[in-house]
Amino acid sequence: MFRPTPAVLGAFRATSRVAFNKPAFQPHFGSVNSQYALKWVPSLFFWGATGGMFVTIAMSGVPLFKTDVLLKTPVASFFEDKTPDCDKPF
Q1: 79 and which of 43, 47, 61, 70 could share a cystine (Cβ 3.0–4.6 Å)?
Q2: In this structure, is residue 23 part of a structural domain?
Q3: Which regions span the lipid bilayer (predicted)?
């Protein structure tokens, strides 16, 4: 006759030795939770920085943008135009 081993008997116990995980509330907004949102942070940071650099380069020729943004930003102070007025086409 077939006699089960202790390992087989332990697998079919009514109460296992493994602790049961208690369900915990995870905050969410719709189907978006914190773990899902954290996956997008690197991509959003990259595209935001790239978009900001593109706008800065594209608008660097506009005088209002130069005086209001570039000259007041310590890092971008090298955008100051030192060309004499007689050499400017406008």
Answers
A1: 70
A2: no
A3: 44-65
